[in-house]
Every structure is written in C-alpha cells, then in structure tokens.
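SUBJECT: protein chain
CONTENTS: sequence, structure tokens:
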Amino acid sequence: MEEASPDDVAQSLAFALLFDGRKRARDADHVMADIVAKRLVEHLRISGFIVMKAPPRQPPATPGTKGAQTRR
C-alpha cells in the first residue's frame, strides 16, 4: 500500500460531505465541502495521521469468464 496524497484525501472527504443520501439544496455545497475537506486534511497532517491507499480491486468474475467459480 502507498500513502494517499492530500488531494486524494480531500476529494474523498468532499465527496462524502456532498453526497450523504439527501438531496442538495444549494450551489454553495461544493464550496463548503471543499473548504471543510481541506481543513480536515490539514488537521490530520498536523495530528500525524497517515492515510493509506488500498490496492486496486480486481473486478468480480462473472460466469463464463476466466476465474469464475461454477457450482455443481
């Protein structure tokens, strides 16, 4: 695993702040999510947190493709 860049973490946090299952009501949501995400990243950095990237996942095998498990 490798360390996630601050921009990657900020983008992930901003996305989570924007899309929590409720309908967005204002255009300012994007701006506020970006500001909050950048502040959270800075706080994590100052606190000594290191956020790691997970390795890329392999797509699930489907029947008829190599690697798919078949039941008998």
User: Anything to note?
Assistant: The chain is about 45% helix and 5% strand. The radius of gyration is 18 Å.
